[in-house]
TrEMBL record:
Membrane-spanning ranges: 12-33, 39-59, 80-100, 106-131, 152-173, 185-204, 235-258, 270-287, 299-320, 326-354, 375-397, 409-430
Name of the protein this chain belongs to: Melibiose:sodium transporter MelB
Biological source species: Candidatus Salinicoccus stercoripullorum
GO biological process, one term: carbohydrate transport
High-level lineage: Bacteria, Bacillati, Bacillota, Bacilli, Bacillales
Membrane topology according to the record: Multi-pass membrane protein
């Protein structure tokens, strides 16, 4: 099939992921630490808040997908929401990282309200962004190439923020008027918000939005959301894969600061771990060729095994040589190469699920379906926050103090054991419940291509 996306469009679309994932990684990596160790909020409260906020998102995210699918403007249906969401979410993030010197109930209420608002405003731009991806091309080979590009930019943002985040915070804290970490976090957030807006403008300016064709002209109704989400067995399997994989990675992100600060007692190793994010980028770059050579079905178990090996290396090193950089490098390399491959698979697979929905129901409903990805990513952040927050409380974590052996064992379990369980679960769902692979997937593509040809003939006539 002929290529449908230019090089400029591919990379302009991908660069949008750089800015938006700077924002989401700021929340995923640093927010809990900021709230517990800078503002003094209880870890158990933060973990509970993360979880409770997702109850609202269970309604909010699919409805946003419905709104995007119903949007009709001369600028398209994706671009307006991406821009609006970026601007509003940037403001919400800045307020969330602003220290108003609140205490007690007022502080807890402020944190709760702003975190829920952050999640809602992030949904406004994230749902249309990922909904746009399947509409860039219906060429299966090109789709795999295009799909990994935003993931590469997202991994790059994770690498840079994880590696340089604390350096930036301490630099601005030292050069601000009050010398506090809260000032350092605010200035870093301001810089990230500006980058977020700039990269979004590049995306919506350079990428042409293709119209969405609804196969039989059926108009989407709000009541259809239930049918779309809960009668599509492939989507349900995909949801299982996504939530278990995201849980494994988000738990690591949530506990990482605490693990290296209090177990290995080395902030340098925290930066080293995040600097190894380039290996994930290598995995994403390799994914299209490796998937073509081995097929996605064989890549997934290899990637899951790689992540498990890496986590076991870190777990063992935590006892044998907790400050040994070599073990961190090797263990992290295994984790990142595996996560890079799996991220490639799940990014391509959402487009396959949308294609399957069109064949099965006669409607693509890409924004409603893609909203599950946004919701599940935030759900994984919430559950990982719940596990981390309550885990730290149960294991008697004391902010800013040397931790007991009991607490260190608990942090090790959260850091390594839980992610291993979840990544294995992700593979088992992919292996036994998800069917959009091999000949079945080729049949779906064949049916859609024939339908497209028929539409083109009818339009010509």
């Amino acid at each position: 099939m002929e290529k449908q996306v230019t090089r400029v469009q591919k990379y302009s679309f991908g660069i949008g992921a750089f800015g938006k994932d700077l924002i989401v990684n700021l929340i995923g990596i640093y927010l809990m630490f900021y709230l517990t160790d800078v503002l003094g909020v209880s870890a158990a409260f933060v973990g509970t808040l993360y979880f409770v906020a997702r109850i609202w998102d269970a309604i909010n995210d699919p409805v946003m997908g419905f709104i995007v699918d119903k949007t009709r403007t001369r600028w398209g249906k994706f671009r307006p929401w991406i821009l609006i969401g970026t601007l509003i979410n940037s403001v919400a993030t800045l307020i969330l990282f602003t220290d108003f010197h609140l205490h007690g109930t007022a502080l807890y209420a402020f944190v709760a309200v702003m975190y829920i608002l952050w999640g809602m405003t992030y949904t406004i731009m994230d749902v249309p962004y990922w909904s746009w991806l399947p509409n860039l091309t219906n060429n299966p080979v090109e789709r795999e190439e295009v799909s990994v590009i935003p993931r590469i930019f997202a991994s790059l943002s994770n690498l840079l923020l994880g590696t340089l985040g604390f350096t930036i915070v301490y630099f601005f804290a030292d050069h601000s008027g009050d010398g506090s970490l809260s000032s350092g976090f605010f200035i870093m957030t301001l810089i990230i918000s500006i980058v977020f807006i700039f990269t979004t403008v590049i995306t919506i300016s350079n990428v042409k939005e293709r119209p969405t064709n609804i196969g039989n002209g059926i108009e989407l109704k709000l009541k259809d959301i239930w049918r779309i989400l809960f009668t599509n067995k492939e989507l349900l399997a995909y949801i299982g894969i996504l939530v278990t994989f995201f849980l494994s990675t988000q738990i690591i992100n949530s506990i990482l600061i605490y693990y290296f600060n209090y177990v290995t007692e080395s902030k340098g190793l925290f930066q080293l771990y995040n600097a190894m994010g380039f290996v994930e980028i290598i995995g994403l770059l390799m994914f299209p060729k490796v998937a073509k050579w081995l097929t996605r079905e064989k890549v997934f178990p290899l990637a899951a095994i790689s992540m498990v090996i890496g986590l076991l290396i870190l777990l063992s090193a935590g006892y044998i040589a907790p400050q040994n950089a070599f073990f961190v490098i090797v263990g992290t390399a295994f984790i990142k190469i595996g996560s890079g491959f799996i991220m490639g698979i799940i990014t391509v697979s959402i487009a396959d699920v949308i294609d399957y929905s069109e064949v099965k129901f006669g409607q693509r409903n890409e924004s409603v379906i893609t909203s599950t990805q946004t919701f599940l990513m935030k759900t994984a952040m919430a559950l990982s926050g719940l596990i981390t927050g309550w885990g730290l409380s149960i294991f008697n974590y004391q902010p800013g103090e040397p931790q007991s052996d009991f607490t260190k064992v608990g942090i090790r379990i959260i850091m390594c054991v839980f992610p291993i369980i979840f990544v294995i679960g992700s593979y088992l769902i992919y292996r036994f419940s998800y069917n959009l692979k091999g000949a079945f997937l080729r049949d779906i593509v064949y049916i859609l291509n024939n339908r497209k040809k028929e539409r083109n003939v009818n339009d010509t006539n």
